[in-house]
Amino acid sequence: VPPFLFRFLTDTRAKVVDSTILISVCCSFIIFPLTFIWGGTWADPRCPGGRVCLALDMALDLVYLCCLLLQLNMSFYHPRHHVEVVRRRRIIVRQLTDPLWWISLLSCTSYLWIGLGARLLINNIKSVRIRHWMTEMPD
Q1: Residues 129, 105 contacting (CB under 8 angstroms)
Q2: What parts of the chain have a pLDDT lower than 70?
């Protein structure tokens, strides 16, 4: 087992990362619809709460981004072989070949595009984060 690897079954750090992802996704699903329903841009936010709402949404994006990057250092359960995969190369390859991981990563950059003049409607890409509630919730 590589040093500093977060083992998903036994390591408290892995559980904290997973819980943080779920909490940030839940909070994002409360905040991000407020940012695009009323439209507007960063210069003219029409959403309830204005820039405070946008700043909170941006902070949740940063938390989510950190958790996504930490997943590159977290073991996972192989569904076919029924074992915990702890080889760092295999973990990284699994994440980097997953299109949903890349789309989730892209969803963290929405405020970069908004800052460059895109409309707040681009926040809709964050809806891909629902995958965490559908695939990672305990039975």
Answers
A1: no
A2: 136-139
